[in-house]
Amino acid sequence: MGQETELYAPVKAYLEAQGYEVKAEIAGADVVAIRGDEPPVIVELKTGFSLKLFHQGIARLTVSDHVYLAVPVAPGAAFRRALADNVRLARRLGLGLLTVRARDGHVEALCDPGPYAPRKSKPRTVRLLREFARRQGDPNRGGTRGQVLTAYRQDALACAAHLAVSGPTKGAQVRDATGVPRATEIMRTDHYGWFERVAPGVYALTEAGAAGLRHWTEERACP
């Protein structure tokens, strides 16, 4: 569906099947549906998600609490990911969201207008607070794309720095020298490919580990 007008007929049929009288382009609204004495239902049509579409929907909320956004279904994983994100956004704004399938005009309501309060995720809150507490200093810049210096990476760097100076060392000694309680676990798991076990309980720094240490040392030195 390359034009907004192609969405109109399926949306109109969808609303008429529910007993609404439907007309297009009423006082700036793409679609207006009336059923008896009920408040009007307004639908804004767009060929894809955009900030403008959400702005239009919010503006229509000054006229009616029953406002939907309608977009065509597009193939591919990118659309499915965007759809999930935009359904959450529509709910948060109190808007409804309709999708229209091109091949047969099937209309699906993914959410309806109304107040919405997202449920808090206690595990996510705990992870956020734990990472904040364990992060040493504030080594990253807000808005960073790519690698982030997490608390786990800081601990791994401390282990790498010790091995770079001391050579192969027992995990318990690295723990005691760096103050990283999980030093042995970090080196054994070797998430970054920085460590290798050279004897029972003894770990050494790999070439990748030396490179990672240099990279993050330089990264932290940048203003």
Highlighted features:
223 residues, alpha+beta, Trna Endonuclease, Chain: A, domain 1, Arc Repressor Mutant, subunit A, 2 domains, 6-stranded mixed sheet, 3-stranded antiparallel sheet, 20% strand, elongated
What does this structure look like?
There is one protein chain. With 223 residues, the chain is α+β, with helices and mostly antiparallel strands. It is built from eight helices and nine strands. The protein has helices at 5-16, 51-60, 77-93, 122-134, 151-166, 171-178, 183-189, 207-221, and strands at residues 21-26, 29-34, 41-45, 66-72, 96-100, 107-111, 169-170, 195-199, 202-205. A six-stranded mixed β-sheet has the order 1-2-3-4-5-6, with helices on both faces. Strands 7-9-8 form a three-stranded antiparallel β-sheet. The longest helix is centred in the middle third of the chain and has 17 residues, at 77-93. The protein is elongated, with a radius of gyration of 28 Å.
Helix content: 40-55%
Which segments are poorly predicted (pLDDT under 50) over 5 or more consecutive residues?
none
Shape: elongated
Pairing-aware structural class of the strands and helices? Answer: alpha+beta
Largest sheet properties: 6 strands, mixed
Overall pLDDT level: 90
What is the CA-based Rg, rounded? 28 Å
The count of β-strands is: 9
CATH class value of the largest domain: Alpha Beta
Order of SSEs: HEEEHEHEEHHEHHEEH
Number of helices: 8
Architecture of the largest domain in CATH?
Answer: 3-Layer(aba) Sandwich
Q: How many domain modules?
A: 2
Spatial order of the strands forming the largest sheet: 1-2-3-4-5-6
Strand content: 15-25%
